[in-house]
Amino acid sequence: MIAPIAVALAVGLLGWAYQALKPPPPKICGSPGGPPVTSNRVKLSDGRHLAYRESGVPKEEAKFKIIVIHGFDSSKDVYLPITQELMEELKIYILFFDRAGYGESDPYPSRSVKSEAFDIQELADQLQIGPKFYVMGMSMGAYPVWSCLKYIPHRLSGVALVVPFVHYWWPCFPANLAREAFGRLPLSFQRTFRIAHYTPWLFYWWMTQTWFPTLSMGQATLTDQDFEILKKLSEIPSVGQEKVKQQGVYESLHRDILAGYAKWEFDPLDVSNPFPDNEGSVHIWQGYEDKMIPYQLNRYLSEKLPWIRYHEVPDGGHLIINNSNLCETIIRALLLG
């Protein structure tokens, strides 16, 4: 009797493990039972769709064309306090888009750091915005910017990384510096990023289990200034937030973390200056008080890559891009140097 019971228990355990580890299928926009397509989209060469939104002056009249790359749990509808007056003054065209799996852009199981750059390049070509463009990425949206710097530097007019994502396992970081910065994160963040990096096959289970906390925003990750900004943002009508994860939390949020914290094909210190003749510039904007992105690591990268113009905001937290005055400063520095 013992052997059959043991076999039954083993089979049951394997079945439970399979279900616990296997993400659900995505609900693809425009498919039967999936969310409707309500945004403009382009079809990429591999058959996937990217949804996009345009702002500013018409691209045919624009002097500057910027592709904005949204961060974690966000979309092409991200709010940026860029005034119409500024866009008309400088003749700025802005292209926002949903990264793979977010909003109304198709999921991409093979999503990677490298694929992000070529999605951006193909989107620019499909919309005929010209041979060169500016890119600006915020937070998690900065790893696609590093990808652009590595794989399509010839397409770039200028670059801004705002409170940019850092990979704690980049070989370029001294071990003690990375360990100290990583240790400043909440324990739940440390566990989550370790699992994403070392055991990605466990990630869906980790993010859906209820025994231990995973990622949560609060006093441990946001500064007083961040909370003030959030309070002001709550007074602005939220647009599109209900669509961010509509195709599946795994396809949007989880794959984003997995792609970012996977082993990269390159190290930031392998990236060459895309503007050796000073025909453009690369900027990092970092909040000194940021509790989510430790300033020490981006400061270190900027010291090792002297062609990066590093700006440290003394009292800034993680949401500095939502400060209207600073946002305008970031845009002017990107476009006008």
Automatic annotation (TrEMBL):
Keyword annotations from UniProtKB, A to Z: Signal
Signal sequence annotation: 1-20
Pfam families referenced in this protein's UniProt entry, alphabetically: Abhydrolase_1
InterPro entries cross-referenced by the UniProt entry: AB_hydrolase_1 (IPR000073), AB_hydrolase_fold (IPR029058)
The keyword Cytoplasm appears for this protein: no
Highest taxon of source: Eukaryota
Residues in AB hydrolase-1 domain copies: 66-320
Name assigned to this protein: AB hydrolase-1 domain-containing protein
Organism encoding this protein: Quercus rubra
